[in-house]
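Translate sequence into structure tokens.
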Amino acid sequence: MHFDDDDDGPRVDTAAARYALRIERWCSRSRGPTRLVRRLRFHFWWLLHNLVAHPLLAVAPTRRLVDFHDWTSRKLWPADDAPSSTASPVPRIHHRLRWVLHNLGAHVAIGLLPCALTFRWHDDTAGRMDVPDWV
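Result follows.
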């Protein structure tokens, strides 16, 4: 999913920065049990996006699965705070193994263990797969 650049907002050019920003946007305006429920809802969408949408893209990067990916990506932002977006293009994959490693390996890793090491691996594999307009 592609987000329009927003000169007024924070830079979100790494997976770790996007993760932190999404959690902050989901949870910053709530307290107590409401905050916990919002955090759990975020993690549901986080797991669906990283453990289902991306592995499916690894296997079959079709228009329908790209649309499913974009839908789960939009859900990672609270409804009242989603950035403007455009549809992701169907990827043109030149290095199939790198594509699979990123979408099946790195996304599952950040889905299950979102930490500095897995986010760095995600960002590294995103650059190496060499698929324009995809991270």
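Note: The longest helix spans residues 32-59.
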